[in-house]
């Protein structure tokens, strides 16, 4: 989990020019780090490349819009790390 | 090109969904009010319109890759370089390749050439969204036929 988080945090720091020290597992990408949806596409692109997956952003957005999930579940970085680990595990299964 | 309608692409020359590539062609009109201002006595095709031509070419590729069920909107342009002047009457070859097929977005590399010379190139991000309404969907289908997609557009698309 920690290495996944570190990879994400480094991607965010580099992509959005946010100080790496200010990015923690508890950070909410949108609410705390101020990342907007366009910048998040660059992050998603880098994550897709780094982990060899395809973040299901449309599905997540739909779930949030439908009230079936909260943004915390996908955009708090420790949770995002867990989702990525799940996708990587599913890909290897 | 029909600049007054913002239609930058004349026709699709080639498309490969397997390779995720497209080639289009466009001829810069010999006359346009745009050239009266850009620039008086020295008509040049504006770089932003060349960028739009690359975006529209990328958009056709993304639309085709989505079976014309969704459309693409330009979201970002990076590393856009305009290497030489384009003037009225020039025939442009425009190419694009999807470099990443994301969830609800795509990244492309696009370039415009004249002969062997690269005129400009850029990395583009396009959002992929549902058609906002039936009017847009029908207009897109007509446009697709105009540029040569007739056989590619599903009857119910």
Concise overview:
The complex is a heterodimer of chains A (93) and B (157). Chain A has 93 residues and is mainly α.
Describe the structure.
Chain A is mainly α and 93 residues long. Chain A has a single domain (2-92), classed as Orthogonal Bundle (Non-ribosomal Peptide Synthetase Peptidyl Carrier Protein, Chain A), CATH 1.10.1200.10. Chain A is 65% helix and 0% strand. Chain A has 5 helices and no strands. Chain A has helices at residues 2-16, 37-51, 57-65, 71-75, 77-92. Chain A starts with a helix and ends with a helix. With 157 residues, chain B is of the alpha+beta class. Chain B has one domain (3-138): Roll (Thiol Ester Dehydrase, Chain A), CATH 3.10.129. Chain B contains 3 helices and 6 strands; from the N terminus they run ββααββββα. Chain B has helices spanning 33-37, 47-65, 134-147, and strands at residues 11-16, 21-27, 70-82, 91-101, 105-114, 117-130. In chain B, strands 1-2-4-5-6-3 form a 6-stranded antiparallel beta sheet, covered by helices on one side. In chain B, a hairpin with a 2-residue loop joins strand 5 and strand 6. Chain B is globular and about 45 Å long. The relative contact order of chain B is 0.20. The chains are: A mainly alpha (93), B alpha+beta (157). Chain A binds chain B through residues 38, 41-42, 44-45, 48-49, 54-59, 61, and chain B through 75-76, 100-105, 107, 125, 127.
